[in-house]
Prior knowledge:
The complex is a heterodimer.
Chain A: H1 2-6, H2 13-32, E1 51-59, E2 73-75, H3 96-108, E3 120-125, H4 129-143, H5 154-157, H6 161-170, E4 176-179, H7 185-198, E5 204-211, H8 215-220, E6 227-229, E7 231-239, E8 246-254, H9 258-272, E9 276-279, H10 284-296, E10 299-302, H11 304-307, H12 314-323, E11 330-336, E12 342-349
Parallel strand pairs in A: 2-6, 3-4, 3-5, 9-10, 9-11
Antiparallel strand pairs in A: 1-7, 1-8, 5-7, 8-12, 11-12
Helix pairs in contact in A: 3-6
Chain B: E1 5-13, H1 20-29, E2 35-36, E3 49-50, H2 72-88, E4 97-101, H3 109-118, H4 124-129, H5 133-142, E5 149-153, H6 159-172, E6 178-185, H7 189-197, E7 221-229, H8 230-235, E8 242-251, H9 264-277, E9 286-288, H10 295-308, E10 314-315, H11 318-321, H12 328-342, E11 344-345, E12 368-369, E13 374-381, E14 385-392
Amino acid sequence: MLLVDLMPLLYLKSMRRTIEKINIIVIWWVIFIQYVCPHMDCGELEDKMKICISNIYSIMPIFKQNEIEDKNRINQTENYDITCFSSKKGLRRLPKSTKNAIIASINVFDEVKSYDTSRIGIFVGSMMSYIENANKFLEPAFQKSAKYVSPLAFPNTVLNNISGWISIVLGTTNINTTVASGKTTGIDAIKIACDYIQFGMIDKALVVMSEEITEIILQCDLKRSTHYSEGTVAIVLEKECDESICLIEDSFSSNVELKDFKKVISEIMDRTGCSNIIYGSGNNDDSDLEKLFANKGFNKDNLYEKYGECFSLNSFFKIHDFLGDGTKKDTLILETNEEGNKALLHLKKKGI
Amino acid sequence: MDTRVVVTGVGTITSIGLNHAEFWKNCQMGTIGTSEIELSNIELFKGKYGGQIKTFDFTKFHKQKSTHQLGRSTQLLIASVKEAISNSNINNDDINKLYIGTTMGEVAIDDTSRNYHLGIQNSEDLLRNNQLEYILNDTLRELEIKNCETLLLCNACSAGNYALVSAFECIKNNKADVIIVGGVDAFSKTAYYGFTRLGAVASEKCRPFDKNRDGMLVAEGAACLVLESEKHAIKRKASIIAEVVGYGISSDAFHINVPHPDGTGIENATIAALKYANINGNQIDYISAHGTGTIANDKIESKILNKVVGKVPISSIKSMLGHTMGAASAIESVACCLSIRDNIIPPTINYTDWDEECDVNCVMNNSMNKEVKYAMNNSYAFGGSNASIIFKEYEENN
């Protein structure tokens, strides 16, 4: 998709306007080519309103070799000048993951200016970036003395700094929260955001995943992947509407064993007729799940092979790729922690 | 008809008690839990006091199954979840979800970062503990709770309240019957350094609402509450401690670590909570204040509570515990529930001088015997996250 390929070039106001136009074209393209009224499916959301993704904005990494550590291939994003996007004070010295999250939020939620900001919720996921932020904050304590740690950098070490900043920049006054559940962080954040919309606590949710890959983060990744990608993806969720890009037909996340997770997958695939799966969490679950896919004849796409380890972004890059793929009507997006939550989303594009 | 949500069990691990009974007894007596910080590899400043739980020995609470060295936050959480389950007498199979709040997560980064800068090899366990999902995963595995949905909500000092709000709505909307909610944070060197450099740490004592207050004290702790649908609780003949009847949440959208000078976010959360509970401010019998002991927080909180709620008895148990970060609002929720159960309001200790900028009805130094039908728990956090929750004495026929 054009949207995907052009994102890394985003660095100037003029370019931002171009991207916005492309973004709008893509959304209308998706809506325009719809031809089937989506079947109202059941599942966790059966007796509730349908929730849709109505916009997406991604800051994608540039696929290149990085010099941080030779043995690791790291795809990083450009360092964008945040002052091109917001004139709020204090943004320039923020960590990269926070800045990218703010930029993506501004772009995906342009209408925020004209919307009731007390009805918008912010849900953020970031699994590893806090490690870099805390490490930078503590550095003077180990080099000289704790007397020299920066009070300005301290808020960056607190886990909800990204959601707090997005709320400040967008001026939203309802919930702003941060979720951390490893690889399933993205799906878990979507699930809780859907809950808040369905319970009537908010009308729209901005769900943002943002990760930065640095040397200390590589050291802290026990999986020792050889391939990493950083970036930011922001999506807007709301009640099914004309702007819907795709519907969230089903969602599941629980601390279950893999065999039980497979049953959930099979049940949804059998019930809905969906045969597409996007998966790949970079753990042993992947190969085990592949056996299920082979038995059932599902069309599978392992995005871990494309992006490598992206931490909380894993599932959001999958959403990004699915929305940019004009050939797939619906898909199951799977994400697993080898120990812990196993999660899925069943997404169906409006009408393709 | 809406599902009513009740509290059927609590568990706390604090510097003034390693279970909720001990905590509550000391809370009423105004016991000081803060003391001089004792921790390896820490550089102490002028304000060298904190709320460490120095008597916590995990092996006395739980026989660990995992071979991993569990982080301290995980250990504190396991102990408090275990007590809450026991207090509620609920079966593990009945637990649908575990929603926990935290500010700093597992504080392994304090040591990981030090080792990184000093060229010391980090152990696998230390690195593992940096990955926050293990806090809840290890808790479930150690306590043999299966098929449970988990969520770690990171809303800084209001995280426990946000976890409770999310769970409350889930049960109220019939998406779950039993959810364990709570908050946890181990003592964080990062927080101690950060708050000190922000000029927010007290020289010795935490004195909320006092004219001589000079800051907060970094502390640690954990607390959990078993939230349950009334129907489920009655069916299993559970003892109901209190009912959750309302809440208000808001964001200041103003500054990452400074409260809005007009207190608009706090005011919105307070008003929304009263509206949700369908009561007036003068019906509140007790307010568990956020009351950090910092100049700015207590001044703004006092101003808004006077405006919205009036002269209701108010106290801050942070005067005893220090600021337990992500655990604070959960511990204070437990205090509200027990206050309703026993009709006793815990005091704000270390209070000596009235401050005209904090003209609240502060319960000073000694607990107060008073009928408590409604109790409000306030929490305000970094990122401008505010949450107020209202608990009510449970009545079968409401």
